[in-house]
Amino acid sequence: MRQSKLFTKTRKEAPRDEISKNASLLIRAGFIHKEMAGVYSYLPLGWRVIQKLKTVIEEEMAKLGSQEILMSTLQNKEIWERTNRWDDEEVDVWFKSTFKNGSEVGFGWSHEEPIGEMMKSHISSYQNLPIQVHQFQNKLRNEVRAKSGIIRCREFIMKDMYCFALTAEDNLEFYNKTTEAYLEVFRRVGLGDITYVTSASGGVFTDKFSHEFQTICEAGEDTIYITDESKKKAVNEEMADKKSEGKKAVEVGNIFNFGTKKSEELGLYVTDGDGEKKPVFLSSYGIGVTRLMGTVVEVLSDDNGIVWPRKIAPFQVHLLSLSEKTRNLADAVYENLVSNDIEVLYDDRDLRAGEKFADADLMGIPTRVVIGEKAIASKTLEVKDRASGETRELTIEHLIKELMG
Questions:
Q1: Contacts of 243 (CB under 8 A, 6+ apart)
Q2: Is 178 found in the same domain as 80?
Q3: Order of all β-strands in the sheet with 381-385
Q4: 1 in a domain, yes or no?
Q5: Residue 244 has what pLDDT?
């Protein structure tokens, strides 16, 4: 894509009311737009990152055998009343409204109750189980503290997955497989070394213990205590003996085991092999997609801007043409890269070199290719790695081979 055609522009300063590092950098770099406190829109660059994150997550969910669906954001009051989670004293993050006919409706903050109700139409026999489904959907939560940029929002994108199983053993087997799949997701997006499987209480989801995936981050609102570094295990503050040093962390994912309680409340039963009626085991699994994006920015950025891991970067290459004299060569390099299916943001704008370098640092695309006047004679390109700062001289053929390797 030619940067001159990109409608978003970089900014020297973030909005005065934006105090979080992740949102400040993303706004300045042209990835997101702030609508109000805790509410952001995703611009072309930001949406490309979201799509990359979704692809990584979808690939790992597919390995688990989960099928993608999309459920309604509007929530049926009666279903939630059956589990006592419609009451604001039980769940304090509801957004609620009223239809024109006077009946109340909620806006989805989670989907355990609706998915359980839906499965009553599709599960009747033990032969239907196990079933795993997931969705990518906007969630709405009436957060009191929306001050951490896209890490804690009132509207955000979540991947939520639900497993329905006949036995506790089948449910636990999938629970353990998903734990490993989640760790793989976080490894692939560049957070593997600092993300821990953390034991925690269930909160409004379940009165039993749950597990969170916590990424070490100074901007985090949680405190965790590492119990096994090699296995990436930790405990949340309310469960720790606090003999070790606590670390601030951001919750980027969570998993909950409801057992059969939710199915019993909703009336989700199946007939087993002996003809007996049994409640179904339910577990649920969430990854905050936009929160994950914000966490990557918080922990991997440097003094000059964002540093995207290659797997989720909006483009693989940021191509900079430094003058009118280099335009023809830069055009040719751009066409060559694009013809090899390499994602390129081509800075063809009529700006000074210093402004282009500053914008490239701010936007954080992994590989920067600079076309200066000496490249016209040498036919080599200045290639800089955004993360390490290493600069090399490469031919276009060598660069393409590296990027495609």
A1: none
A2: yes
A3: 344-347, 317-321, 367-371, 381-385, 391-394
A4: no
A5: 79
